[in-house]
Amino acid sequence: MIKSLTPTQMAAPFARYAHGVLDPASGLLLTSGQLALSVDGTTPIGAQAQADLIFHNIDLILQDGGASRADVLRINAFVTGREHMAGYMVARDAWLADVPHLPASTLMIVSGFTRPEFVVEIEVTARCPA
């Protein structure tokens, strides 16, 4: 049975969806696109600070599913302008610094998100350990 993943240590989803899902039969874990929203409802300023918070929250989702960043197969990231690419990449590279393999990765520039203060959104696909 598919398991919804919504860690209580992070802000609740904006609507009726889970932050992630785990399919135990296949071992696949997929996150929803994550935006930089703290538990207290604040959003940090700048792409690097937002990406750092998002990756922290992705760690929580992975842990909730029994995985870690070492199990990530793919990262899909979205920024609202070229000026945000460097900050995002600094945060991504730091998050992956101790990972024994590098996942596939896509970075796209988009026109915007649900609120103007959000400049980064990230989703990952992972394979949970057997």
UniProtKB/TrEMBL annotation:
Cited InterPro entries: RutC-like_sf (IPR035959), YjgF/YER057c/UK114 (IPR006175)
Superkingdom field: Bacteria
Transmembrane region(s): none
Pfam family, one: Ribonuc_L-PSP
Protein's name according to its UniProt entry: RidA family protein
